[in-house]
Amino acid sequence: MANRIILEEKPNKTVFREGDVIIKEFVPGHPKEHVFNEAYIHSCVEASGLSIPKIRSVVPSNGGWALTIEYIEGKTLDRLMQESPQMCEAYLERLVDIQLEVGGYQVLQLRNTISKMDQVIKSVEGIDAATRYELLQRLHGMKRHTRLCHGDFVPSNVILRDDGSYCVLDWAHATSGNAGADAAITYMRFSLDQPEYAEEYLRIFCERSGMSVRYVQKWLPIVAAAQLAKKNPSEKELLTQWISVVEYQ
Ligand SMILES: Nc1ncnc2c1ncn2[C@@H]1O[C@H](COP(=O)(O)OP(=O)(O)OP(=O)(O)O)[C@@H](O)[C@H]1O
Ligand SMILES: [Mg+2]
């Protein structure tokens, strides 16, 4: 058996490499339908022709379920940014260019962004009825689009190969819908995890996409409410602050 190298450990899953595959192993009890749904979403995006790793199988593993995915040789943008901080602006530009390329695809089998957010906002705990109403009003006031949205487009989910080509990982949260929502999610993830890059990311995204900063910001209370559903205590303060903007804007 090939050596197992652990790449990431989270409460609900472990990601490791074994030879030429990545194994994403979920803990026993993690809903089977979530694992099979991730495999389905991944397969649909794979069929679109976008550069993503091939999914190989869904297998029972250690009492739970695991996805096996082709291993991609290269470095994540996250690692490249850590190794060469002086190159960060160029890497942020690359991140945006790839995000815009992703948004040029259509994968119509995926759930629409607005329908998914509607379901999450209706069930998220910790917001009052008036705020929930305002959030849903705002969400349903957005025009429906059908662009491929990754849903967690962050530097650790993009691999650059030595020849400069890219590959996008981690398709669990993908939807068909609004690129503005996808940019708002990326901006939110930067603000939570690497705030020093958040404003520059937004500036570059808006410059290159032609989208207004105002439009991306309109999505912020909505994506913040959806993120609140993940119940990460360290994120609660910032997310609650962003959600409250919906009341007076
Ligand atoms: N196919 C792959 N080829 C090479 N490296 C990979 C591959 N898939 C994952 N990795 C590495 O493992 C890390 C974690 O994998 P992944 O992004 O799929 O899981 P995750 O971030 O824990 O998922 P989620 O964001 O859904 O919680 C990546 O950042 C990357 O470094
Ligand atoms: Mg990831």
Keywords, please?
single chain, 249 residues, alpha+beta, Phosphorylase Kinase, domain 1, Aminoglycoside 3'-phosphotransferase, Chain: A, domain 2, 2 domains, 3-stranded antiparallel β-sheet, 10 helices, 10 strands, 47% helix, binds adenosine-5'-triphosphate, binds magnesium ion
Structure description:
- With about 250 residues, the protein is of the alpha+beta class.
- It folds into two domains: about 5-70, Phosphorylase Kinase, domain 1 (2-Layer Sandwich), CATH 3.30.200; about 75-249, Aminoglycoside phosphotransferase (APH), C-terminal lobe (Aminoglycoside 3'-phosphotransferase, Chain: A, domain 2).
- The chain is built from ten helices and ten strands.
- The strands form three sheets. A five-stranded antiparallel sheet has the order 1-2-3-5-4, with helices on one face. It has a three-stranded antiparallel sheet with strand order 6-8-9. It has a two-stranded antiparallel ribbon with strand order 7-10.
- Helix 5 (about 130-140) crosses helix 10 (about 235-249).
- The model has no long low-confidence stretch (mean pLDDT about 95).
- The structure holds adenosine-5'-triphosphate and magnesium ion (MG).
- Magnesium ion binds near residues 169 and 170.
Any chance you could write out the topology, listing elements then pairs?
Layout (H helix, E strand, L loop, with lengths): L3 E7 L2 E6 L2 E6 L5 H16 L7 E7 L2 E7 L4 E2 H7 L4 H15 L10 H11 L5 H12 L6 E3 L8 E3 L5 E3 L6 E3 L1 H15 L4 H12 L3 H6 L1 H9 L7 H13 L1
Antiparallel strand pairs: 1-2, 2-3, 3-5, 4-5, 6-8, 7-10, 8-9
Helix pairs in contact: 3-7, 4-5, 5-10, 6-7, 9-10
The protein binds adenosine-5'-triphosphate and magnesium ion.
